[in-house]
Write a structure and sequence with these properties.
CATH superfamily of the largest domain: Response regulator
Distance between the termini: 63 Å
CATH architecture of the largest domain: 3-Layer(aba) Sandwich
Number of domains: 3
Order of helices and strands: HHHEEHEHEHEHEEHEHEHHEHEEHEEE
CATH topology of the largest domain: Rossmann fold
Number of strands: 15
Shape: elongated
CATH class of the largest domain: Alpha Beta
Number of helices: 13
Strand content: 15-25%
Length: 355
């Protein structure tokens, strides 16, 4: 595929700046000389670019004053309402939370006068890095990033933060680095869920979780512990079933959880740290001997596919509204990084699961 002629490239860049609000109707554009220097072309080339746009009516020349974006051009009023692009990077679209984040972010971005560009990383560090680079090349005004599961945050995220590029991390935060982040109150949600089970008389409560690789998982684990500590009860870490991400992706998690439950017959309740693990835990329960007469109560962080399972509900819409508010604050030149924890709600079903 042939590359654009140089004068066409200049024209496309000017059109892009108008579409994204970088140039507004009535704004003066750089001179032919300035454009020639910027694009490393001859002044004849930059002149041809401007002449072409002037013939289309997109630009208008005023002798002795310069060249301006034509405020009366019929297409420019609509173009100028578009303030630019916002980038959203998600690890996947496989959970209800992912889907709700996507829908709510798109709504709030659109209502704010911007267009949303979305990248899905498929939980790949390489794809996350590439997504950031691609969106920056598309000149997004800001980025919303739901980071992938990994031990350390990527250098790209750290670079964006240090450069103060408009960025909000959603559902995650950096513990030792000051940046903007919005997440559910994971610690309080887990504490309330486990406190609910303790209040019902459960003493041997299992925690089914994934190995801690992010702030959300760490806070939910801390919330589990907090519920016991507030009641001066001992925490039995032997009742924690911690899976590796590989156990989940290879399909081994159900058998691991089943073996764990069989090895710990005193367990009367299970708290799972996310909806996916709730599904694996429920399938492990269903695979066990249904005639044993054992009943276990299951509570999940996030709503699962099982309607009879109590769960902690994140207010995703509010998380997204606050995320856009904090991002636009940065776009407007204000930089006051902070971590926002959005309150959650506990929905309990009062149903025991027989295993």
């Amino acid at each position: 595929m042939k590359s654009l002629p140089l004068y066409k490239k200049i024209q496309e860049d000017i059109r892009f700046q108008i579409r994204t609000g970088q140039l507004r109707p009535g704004d003066r554009i750089p001179s032919e000389k300035d454009l020639a220097e910027h694009y490393h072309v001859s002044q004849i080339t930059s002149k041809n670019a401007i002449n072409g746009l002037a013939e289309e009516g997109i630009l208008i020349r005023h002798r002795g004053k310069g060249t301006f974006v034509n405020a009366t051009h019929e297409d420019l009023s609509a173009m100028s309402r578009h303030k630019g692009f916002i980038g959203l990077i998600l690890p996947s679209m496989k959970t209800k939370v992912d889907q709700r984040i996507m829908n709510a972010i798109e709504q709030y971005v659109r209502e704010s006068g911007y267009y949303l560009l979305v990248k899905i990383t498929q939980e790949s560090p390489l794809e996350e890095s590439k997504a950031i680079d691609d969106l920056l090349l598309l000149r997004v005004k800001g980025l919303i990033i739901f980071p992938i599961e990994q031990e350390m945050y990527s250098n790209d995220l750290l670079r964006l933060t240090l450069n103060r590029f408009p960025l909000v991390m959603i559902d995650r935060y950096m513990k030792e680095i000051e940046t903007y982040s919005v997440a559910a109150d994971n610690l309080d949600g887990a504490c309330r869920a486990v406190g609910y089970l303790l209040g019902k008389g459960h003493e041997h409560i299992a925690f089914v979780t994934v190995k801690v690789t992010n702030s959300a998982t760490a806070d939910r684990a801390a919330g589990f512990e907090k519920a016991f500590l507030e009641r001066n009860l001992p925490i039995h870490k032997t009742l924690w079933c911690t899976l590796n991400i590989k156990d989940i992706t290879t399909g081994r998690s159900v058998s691991i959880i089943q073996e764990f439950l069989q090895d710990n017959p005193d367990i009367t309740a299970v708290f799972t740290c996310n909806a996916e693990l709730t599904g694996h835990t429920r399938r492990a329960m269903d695979a066990m001997n249904p005639h044993a007469g054992r009943r276990v109560e299951l509570v999940s962080f996030d709503q699962s596919e099982w309607v009879d399972v109590s769960y902690v509900k994140q207010n995703v819409e509010e998380m997204c509204r606050v995320t856009i508010e904090l991002l636009l604050e940065q776009v407007q030149g204000i930089y006051k990084p902070r971590r926002v924890a959005v309150p959650v709600t506990l929905f309990h079903k009062n149903i025991l699961n027989k295993i």
